[in-house]
């Protein structure tokens, strides 16, 4: 007997959204039990709606050649919007993947609140709403008896937040340290290995789809700060804001600085850090010259890492989870599967 479908609305169909659709297509057989059925794909210009489930193979082919999904022949229209989806109420999970806005959280904040209030689970890659309102969103999710998956928001494929929530349950996290941004790590690596200057390396990161829609978020340290803040507030039960973090980016570094460090056996990394000093929490994002004995020294290319110290589970360092649209989409799928399996994130 075929299982009841898990009805999905995709909101935001850019790099990560498209990669997520490709994953659903490529993993169709493995996902038989969950039986995902995409009823909506909604972008800035409108969307696609099929109450019986959009044919994801056809849409994947179409969207490879066409940017405007409202032109999709079966159910595409500028009239299909987030509000029309809310009115129809025929979804179980909303996957929110619109651009991160660290100042307002919009449009993601409204999408997530309304989805949770309407009884839909939410999985998101959008850091803005989580950064600005996680506690409130968690309460709305609990009140409506639905889940909120945020694994993608603080490192994508790198298991940071879920490892903290699930695998470190019952332990107090005392400090968080990490190389949390793949774009800057990739840029620093490119500058060292090929000798190109910062701007050229940034272009490569953009071509690889890992830089933010607004790449200043990466290179000026805000993406690292955002992820650090999400980890700190969620895992250390704090209510800090970006204003509490001293933030520095990588825009002023030169190839000559990197080469000089390499001659001394050191590597530059953009490190985000939350540490408690005399009852005060200190948070910073800054370029650090690391020695080979530092666990973060070996984080290469688009990879990232997080290091937790805790009272009862010791020190844990997780390395890997390269940034990229497919790993980010895979982390969304991971949350979706865990919600299906009954995992409680909130
Ligand atoms: N790229 C990555 O590796 C990772 C990204 N993220 C996060 O995932 C999110 C998406 O990233 P990415 O796919 O790279 O970004 P993109 O800019 O490629 O895609 C964002 C999409 O959202 C659409 N959009 C904008 N406003 C709205 C709206 N009001 N309603 C519906 N859709 C809208 C955009 O449409 P249009 O193009 O028409 O403006 C675009 O298609 C961001 O929040 C990012 O921070 C998280 C982890 C990794
Ligand atoms: N721009 C980010 C993408 C994932 O969050 C990065 O480079 O890590």
Q: What's a quick, concise take on this entry?
A:
The protein is 37% helix and 22% strand. It is of the alpha/beta class and 346 residues long.
Would you kindly provide a written description of the structure presented here, covering whatever features stand out?
It is a single chain. With 346 residues, this protein is of the alpha/beta class. The protein has 2 domains: 6-157 and 326-340, 3-Layer(aba) Sandwich (Rossmann fold), CATH 3.40.50; 162-321, 2-Layer Sandwich (Dihydrodipicolinate Reductase, domain 2), CATH 3.30.360.10. The chain has 12 helices and 13 strands. A hairpin with a 4-residue loop joins β12 and β13. α1 (15-26) runs antiparallel to α2, α1 (15-26) crosses α12 and α4 packs parallel to α5. The chain binds NADPH dihydro-nicotinamide-adenine-dinucleotide phosphate and ligand LTNE7NMQ. The site of ligand LTNE7NMQ has 11 residues, from α7.
């Amino acid at each position: 007997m075929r299982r009841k479908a898990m009805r999905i609305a995709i909101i935001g169909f850019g790099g990560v959204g498209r990669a997520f659709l490709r994953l659903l297509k490529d993993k169709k057989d493995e996902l038989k039990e969950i039986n995902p059925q995409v009823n909506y794909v909604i972008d800035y210009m409108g969307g696609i709606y099929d109450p019986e489930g959009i044919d994801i193979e056809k849409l994947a082919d179409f969207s490879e050649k066409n940017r405007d999904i409202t032109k999709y022949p079966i159910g595409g229209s500028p009239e299909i919007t987030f509000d029309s989806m809310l009115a129809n109420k025929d979804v179980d999970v909303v996957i929110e993947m619109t651009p991160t806005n660290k100042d307002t959280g919009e449009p993601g904040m409204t999408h997530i609140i309304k989805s949770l209030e309407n009884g839909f689970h939410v999985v998101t890659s959008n850091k803005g709403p989580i950064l600005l309102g996680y506690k409130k969103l968690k309460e709305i999710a609990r009140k409506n008896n639905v889940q909120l998956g945020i694994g993608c928001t603080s490192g994508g494929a790198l298991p940071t937040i879920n490892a903290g929530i699930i695998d470190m349950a019952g332990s107090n996290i005392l400090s968080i340290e990490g190389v949390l941004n793949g774009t800057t790590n990739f840029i620093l690596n490119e500058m060292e290995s090929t000798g190109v200057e910062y701007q050229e390396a940034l272009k490569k990161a953009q071509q690889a789809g890992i830089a933010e829609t607004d790449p200043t978020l990466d290179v000026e340290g805000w993406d690292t700060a955002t992820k650090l803040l999400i980890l700190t507030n969620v895992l250390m039960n704090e209510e800090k804001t970006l204003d509490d973090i001293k933030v520095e980016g990588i825009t002023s570094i030169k190839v000559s600085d990197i080469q000089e460090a390499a001659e001394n056996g050191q590597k530059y990394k953009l490190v985000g850090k939350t540490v408690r000093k005399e009852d005060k929490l200190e948070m910073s994002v800054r370029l650090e010259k690391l020695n080979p004995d530092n666990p973060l020294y070996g984080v290469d290319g688009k990879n990232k890492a997080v290091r937790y110290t805790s009272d009862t589970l010791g020190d844990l360092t997780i390395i890997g989870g390269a940034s990229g649209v497919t790993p980010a989409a895979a982390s969304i799928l991971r949350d979706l599967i865990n919600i299906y399996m009954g995992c409680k994130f909130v």
